[in-house]
Design a protein that fits this description.
Number of domains: 2
Helix content: 40-55%
CATH superfamily of the largest domain: Porin chaperone SurA, peptide-binding domain
Shape: elongated
Largest sheet: 4 strands, antiparallel
CATH class of the largest domain: Mainly Alpha
Distance between the termini: 24 Å
CATH architecture of the largest domain: Orthogonal Bundle
Number of helices: 13
Structural class: alpha+beta
Length: 316
């Protein structure tokens, strides 16, 4: 897994509007913070690190961050700090055992020394990693106890949504196709003529002659619908009778000969089959909106000051 993926794991993936936010930190005496949230500072170094995380790649980092990016990163840091303050007020703090278990799960994703190598590359200490995990677990608990319990989707709502968006559950006609693809038209014509004499040998010929990666599977491309891949090449399969061998069809990758082995008519996914995934989708959308509304309410009650000149001058 790439370094970027590790970074995202460390910084609150459940908060739609607060990912990669900076943590509150002590600010040295005489050093101005970029922002103060209910008396707690967000320091320059913390925000600078988050700007760097938001700008992967050395070429991008060489350019100064835009005003929009600086503001977005600061807003995320403010939102995160507001949530941490709320969690502390509710005495919802992740314990050492929870943090240790999360650390072990995270480390298990990286074999050998990859985990330590990534932390070293990120310049992230073990203490900072544990602090980030503690914050993440704390905020997950806050959301689970104060926001998510009131989010529900009833069976009636599911049914109504399904009926009002029925077209989203329509599956178009699909065909299952085998192909032989070769480099020249002459070779393709020879393959076509051989297969028209003996169409039942299509899989054998594909394994022997085709240069496509699916050759090992007898040329089986699986099921696909109209408009898939290169429509100008593959849509011809929808007029081909079952088990018949097509004419030679050119493409930028060579010359193709097709055989349709199965058809699936257009159909609508039944409600009972669609309901579990639909319910999860609606819950996810409602949780996202609830999180945004929860943070907005915290902002309305908060005292937030921003040093705009310091923010404008900020760079990773």
């Amino acid at each position: 897994m790439a370094l970027r993926a590790l970074t995202l794991l460390l910084v609150l993936p459940l908060l739609a509007g607060c990912a990669r936010c900076g943590r509150s930190e002590k600010v040295a005496e005489g050093v101005r913070p970029v922002a103060v949230v209910n008396g707690e500072p967000i320091g320059v170094e913390a925000l600078r690190r988050e700007l760097a995380l938001d700008r992967p790649g050395t070429e991008v980092k060489a350019e100064p961050p835009t005003a929009e990016l600086r503001r977005r990163v600061l807003d995320g840091a403010v939102d995160r700090l507001l949530l941490l303050q709320q969690a502390r007020a509710r005495q919802l703090v992740a314990g050492p055992e929870q943090v240790e278990r999360a650390l072990l799960r995270l480390r298990a994703e990286y074999p050998g020394t990859h985990f330590d190598d990534l932390l070293a590359q990120e310049k992230l200490s073990a203490a900072e990693l544990q602090a980030r995990l503690r914050d993440q677990l704390t905020l997950e608990r806050l959301l689970a106890e104060e926001v998510f319990p009131r989010i529900t989707v009833s069976d009636e709502e599911l049914r109504r949504w399904y009926d009002e968006h029925a077209a989203e559950f329509d599956t178009p006609e699909q065909v299952r196709v085998r192909q032989v693809v070769v480099r020249t038209r002459e070779e393709a014509v020879r393959v076509r003529d051989e297969l028209r004499r003996k169409p039942q040998a299509f899989a054998e010929v594909a394994r022997r002659a085709s240069m496509g990666p699916e050759a090992r599977n007898g040329g089986d491309l699986g099921f696909f619908g109209k408009g898939s891949g290169m429509p100008e090449v593959f849509d011809a399969c929808f007029t081909l009778p079952l088990q018949k061998v097509s004419d030679v069809t050119p493409s930028p990758y060579g010359f193709h000969v097709f055989q349709v082995t199965e058809r699936r008519p257009a159909a609508r996914r039944p409600f009972a089959e669609a309901a579990p995934a639909l319910k999860e989708r609606l819950l996810r959308e409602r949780r996202t909106r609830a999180q945004e509304e929860y943070v907005a309410a915290l902002r309305q009650k908060a005292q937030i000051t921003v040093d705009q000149k310091l923010l404008d001058a900020l760079a990773p």
